[in-house]
Amino acid sequence: MNNGFPDNFLWGGATAASQVEGGYDQGGKGLDTQDCKPQYFNLTSKEKNDWKYKQMTSEKYELAKTVKGIANYPFRFGSQEYTHFKEDIALFAEMGMKIYRLSISWARIYPNGDDEEPNQEGLQYYHNVFDECHKYGIKIFVTILHYAVPVHLVDAYGGWKNRKLIDLYVKYAKTLFENFKDDVDYWLPFNEINAGRFNPYNGVALIKDREPNYDLAVYQSLHHQFVANAKVVKLAHEMIPGSKIGCMIARFCHYPATCDPADQLTWLHDEQYTNWFYTDVMARGAYPKYMQRYFDEHHIQIQMEPEDADLLKNYTVDFISFSYYFTQVSTASDDWAKTDGNLVIANKNPYLKSSEWGWQMDPTGLRITLNELYDRYQKPLFVAENGLGAHDTVENGKIHDPYRSEYLLSHAKAMKEAIKDGVDLFGYTWWGIIDLVSCGSIEMCKRYGMIYVDADDEGHGTFNRLKKDSFYTYQNLIATNGSEL
Ligand code: BG6
Question: SS in 3 state form for 394-429?
Fold first, then answer.
């Protein structure tokens, strides 16, 4: 039996360019889809999380493109890592982080997405970031696409439903491999690829009111991402021998509400349609049979090219990563109580406590998830995101956040148990290691960081950094490699 975390376990932190960088129009960066997501500051917290305010519409999108400046577009200011990266990476090093998961902004490298030549200033920015990480011996895990797509690709091509996006994306990835092959330790083509289904604007750059056949557009777009994923796996292995390239989903762990067979069947379908489908394609290399039945019953006919099946089969991923925040209940009943959660609205579990944003916290579910994934695929696993969004209060220059430390330690303990169960888990990156703009609720006050950023929802503040109490909890967890858990 393994006793716990291996010596070389990769403890780290994660961010995404659109949420942390800011500098949305600096260094030659083009406008992207996240820069266009508005926030309405006069809404209550509940309203902000209501889908009707969060859903991207053509009207909101077209308006955003005409507005200059940060106005009510929080992704445009982020946490200003674009100008603070040296200070941030020094703090990551002080914490003891072994790995930093960050994303590259497509629109910083190809401002329109289909430009002939890459933007040298954008490439230089990431060279500088990577050099800074190397200075402290911090390894690098790059997400090639974390939701933010250059707006020109929506306007001229209609987003990922257009097959031409595959080649444009592969060209972008090739540029990254050429430039950063000696810098990056782990590559990830797509953040939470299943977002294409649960949030198509984020995942596949679709605007719902423009799609007469929305479901088909979603699955067609996902197919293009699967093919792009396979092509990029192939390219990485050819261009960077020995490179490690993985996949990622937002992993939604479900429990059947009761032992009623109807609930069990709902649970099976929930697991298949929200989780397994994606990892089955990218790790096993083919569309699973259960999806064919789903597509037939929902009249979804995906256009596939003859070479696609071979690409999927021959270029599967080296490792599987996932985000894990909460668990939910599967039930055949229509009137089960719901959470206020904003990644997805979930069925309530009476045995779990929820975060202030209605996410049901469940460390045991992480152990279960790790076991299920490893059992099915037998590939190394990486927890790419896990964290707690909460309001924090600054008192005399200190932030006491025992809730965040508790969340961290309970999930770390669950990972340790999974490793003892025999799971091959090689890393963990806390989301977001530094406060950043929340992706779902588009606000700064939903803070995940162990490093505080002095900025409010509207971007007012000094943007100074402060260490929270949880900073020291994680520092000790890393230094002791989980042996005190
Ligand atoms: C994941 C995303 O879904 O959840 C991140 O990859 C996101 O981008 C994180 O920030 C937490 O969600 P939220 O909505 O609280 O920011």
Answer: CECCECCCHHHHHHHHHHHHHHHHHHHCCCCEEEEE
